[in-house]
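thought: fold this chain, then report.
action: predict
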Amino acid sequence: MRYELMVGLRYTRARRRNRFVGVNSAVSMIGIALGVWALIVILSVMNGLQQEIRTRILGVASHVQVVGPGGRLADWRAVAQVAASEPRVLAAAPFVESQSMLSAGRAVRPAMVRGILPQEEARVADFSRHMRSGGIDALRPGAFRVVLGADLARSLGLLPGDKVALIAPQGVVTPAGVIPRLKQFTVAGTFAAGTQEADTRLALVHLADAQALFRMGENVSGVRLKLDDLFAARDVARDLQPKLPAQATATDWTRSNTAFFHAIELEKRVMFIILALIVLVAAINIVSTLVVAVSDRQSDIAILRTVGAAPSSVVRIFMVQGMAIGVIGTAVGLAAGVATALNIDVIVPAIENALRFKIFAADVFLIPNLPSELQPGDVVSVTLMALVLSFLATIYPSWRASKVNPAEALRYE
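observation:
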């Protein structure tokens, strides 16, 4: 062990002549620990929130979607075969989609009507996990049944077995003018996917019923694809595009939800910057601690210089003392942050039970339970940031210590 490290660690443990140094050192350690703890927990919660929302959105949406020109695709099976040639594509399902209106009694609501093949749709979307009542298997050709989002059904006052009128945008031209096309459907079930777009607007019908209602013939609007890795969606869409029929377009989920996920990512970065200020303030406290420590140890510095210590050795001694504060605070915050992030599903309910107050009420929040996903990259970046700020805080006081004049320091000793 180099003597600079030994002396620096002894100064960290030694009894202070000035109590301010000890108190300020403790405050600096606590500040760094709190900052690291808060950063790790908040970043883990943001990661969990992003993952939970992504899972909910992609539970009813597609990873990649191939759409025909003008919303019409003639031979969807050929497109599905082309997609199947990509090794990352697990399944394909056709769909017909159009904006419509639903009417029940005096209530009228806009809806996105999607025609599906139930067996094929189950391979690309996980509606079965979100069903509140009934199921998409009840959708049969010619039966004219519909499965509604839970909020949409509630706003229309509908229950399974009730009738609802679906008004198609394609009207019938008569001598009296254009008359909207209207067909009565039976509610076969409801689902709650946990996303506003699906729960308040989406209505599922059988593909054949949608083709008949929207006058599509044998055409479909497009084909939905499910991949083995959702993060490969952009690459798969790009690779598929040259193989598709003329004017057909392949889009992925990152394009359709770009603004939403960019907002979450931006919020995560802003939270990192805001909480990093806690660590920065604690690091500034290290500066004041070492400045006072240098003033308190001037006679010790003079003796070290007299017995042959180089100015660089004095710099390293006080750097060790300052880094000890940073390392201890970072280690405590790291341990507390990782423990909290990994057990947040236990800690939050315990706090709610103790306070007898529901922090995340299921009827208010989109996600009733606080999610958490601890990522090693976040832990490493937070730890390095805290250590770098602690190191930078030691530079000026250590440099000041190396400039102490031994003769001046020992004049009145």
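thought: worth noting. The mean pLDDT is 81.
final: tokens above.
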